[in-house]
Amino acid sequence: MRSRSVRRPGTAGAEAAPPVPVPHTQTREPGFQVTSRQPHQGHTPHLSQSENRLQAFQQRVYVFDMQRFHMVELGANTRAQDVLAALETQGVLDGWAGAGGWALCEVAQDLGMERPLRPFESVNDVLKSWDKGQMKNVFLAKKCALADTLSARNLPSALPRRGAYVDYEVKRGSWKKRWLELREQGLWLAKKDTGKDEVFLCSISSFDAYTVTRPAKSPKPFTFAVKSTDNLTFFENVADYVHVFSCGEGDGKQWIEKIMLGRSYIMNQERNVIASAAGQPPTPGLLAGGSGALKRSGTRKREVPAQPLIDVSPPAAVVAAAQAPVFEPGSLLARR
Fold this sequence. Notes:
Layout: H1 49-55, E1 57-63, E2 69-74, H2 80-90, E3 101-108, E4 113-116, H3 123-128, E5 138-144, E6 162-171, E7 174-183, E8 186-190, E9 199-203, E10 207-212, E11 222-228, E12 242-247, H4 249-271, H5 273-277, H6 316-323, H7 332-335
Parallel strand pairs: 1-5
Antiparallel strand pairs: 1-2, 3-4, 3-5, 4-10, 6-7, 6-12, 7-8, 8-9, 10-11, 11-12
């Protein structure tokens, strides 16, 4: 067969003719490979880029003090109890002395305060609240007196309440005596216990109690704070990000315990974290505060035979008319 050729245009100044389209051939582009259809172990579902970044990463966790640390692999859904279990598997929690049980603590070195994480608390939620520009905050596993109090089995059945006089830091180095009260899922501040001039300070749904570890001049021997669990960038006024109080040591420990138990109660009411941490499906009606949602009883529909209420049979005249021949006898159509 003679090969086809393309003629060049006869005029020198004319535009060049478009090239003849090349028929498409089904060729595989380089770089593509045929994947095997054989099943493989541990099928991984499709994840977005952000989920892949959180799927597995290495995190430094200090043990007992700030002198030694271990690298722990974290995932998107890692909880504080998972980190402690990984450290225990490595055998690094054996042989340490101290009161209380092991707890994973958030050490906010930029503010000089720390708090123990609840066993069911998400580690990634804590990481998101840190200032990534400074990278001063760390995780510390140590013995803590509140470790057993913050466990899931000690979750309170109602929101704790407390009220007492404390010294409140109105600005850096300036303290005022105020009435502090924990109620209605928040902290309220007033000049007197009558509550006539009280103001809403913060919600413990997004604030938690911290022990102040940095030495500072305070009117009482014990200092604690309530700090937001969100990132500082969410606040226009830095003074709304953290609130510092001073009182006696016994009263201060009671405040920290009540506030942390109150937030545990709210976390379970809002997100059902206890059932999620145990790998159980959420209980219906729990988030609404009830024991269960209302539903209809399992009644059965009674089978009723379909019977006409009146006689609907056609009249005899109608039946006879329907059976009568349509075409006239003897016509061409009737013969068919």
